[in-house]
UniProtKB/TrEMBL annotation:
Subcellular location: Cytoplasm
Any Gene Ontology biological process: Rho protein signal transduction
Protein name (record): Rho GDP-dissociation inhibitor 1-like
Superkingdom of the source species: Eukaryota
Swiss-Prot/TrEMBL keywords: Cytoplasm
Record organism: Brassica carinata
One Pfam short name: Rho_GDI
Matching Gene3D superfamilies: Coagulation Factor XIII, subunit A, domain 1
CC annotations in GO: cytosol; membrane
Keyword Cytoplasm appears in the UniProt entry: yes
Length: 224
């Protein structure tokens, strides 16, 4: 069916007296076909100005009360004690907590280099159990925009799982942030038991990576 047939259908339906009282809309040629301006916009790339240190932004407007109130509404309550002289945000992932209704919380300290020192699995999950990952992290120096988490899971060299989740945008502050992931369930059965390897990342809108965490975990018949 061509474009002309679609337009004829729209005209016929709008003139049908049996369908009076209903809304109809005839598509224009311009709504279906890209214009030269649209094509030019696609070729254009957004050019952002240089990033300015957050402290500098607050200092230059500190005498303007209305502007400072507007910035506070826009950026949230910023702890200036946690703001540095450089424009780059600093994000440190502190802890990973694994919550499950079947056992006490497991709180794991995330190493700075993302590599747990233990030679064995970092943690063990029980097959068929429900669990939730909770990350605790700290933001200093500047606002981090669009912080997101991704991970990929392999078993015997085959990728078996992957996920991505947006954490959000955060202002620098002394108190750590906590982000609770959605609840998941481990598979069950003899074939799913064993060791898994994981590669996870925390990156922002600029694709700056704050942590790459590589570790292994086990799925077993029971909790350890």
């Amino acid at each position: 069916m061509g474009l002309k047939d679609e337009n004829n259908k729209a005209e016929e339906s709008s003139e049908d007296p049996k369908r009076q009282g209903t809304l109809s809309r005839k598509n224009s040629h311009s709504s279906l076909c890209p214009t030269e301006d649209d094509e030019e916009d696609e070729d254009k790339k957004l050019e952002l100005g240089p990033m300015i240190a957050l402290k500098e932004q607050f200092e230059k407007d500190k005498d303007d009360e209305s502007l400072m109130r507007w910035k506070e509404q826009l950026l949230g309550k910023v702890d200036l004690e946690e703001v540095g002289e450089t424009p780059d945000p600093v994000v440190k992932i502190l802890n990973l907590t694994i919550r499950s209704p079947d056992r006490e919380d497991m709180v794991l300290t995330v190493p700075k280099d993302g590599k747990p020192t233990s030679k064995g699995p970092w943690f063990t999950l029980k097959e068929g159990s429900k669990y939730t990952l909770v990350f605790t992290f700290r933001v200093t120096n500047n606002i981090v925009s669009g912080l997101r988490y991704s991970n990929s899971v392999w078993k015997t060299g085959i990728k078996v799982y992957g996920r991505k989740e947006m954490l959000g945008t955060f202002s620098p502050q002394a108190e750590p942030y906590t982000h609770v992931m959605f609840e998941e369930s481990t598979p069950s059965g003899m074939l799913v038991r064993g060791s898994y390897s994981v590669k996870s990342k925390f990156v922002d809108d600029d694709d700056k990576c704050y942590l790459e965490n590589n570790y292994t975990f086990d799925i077993r018949k029971n909790w350890l």
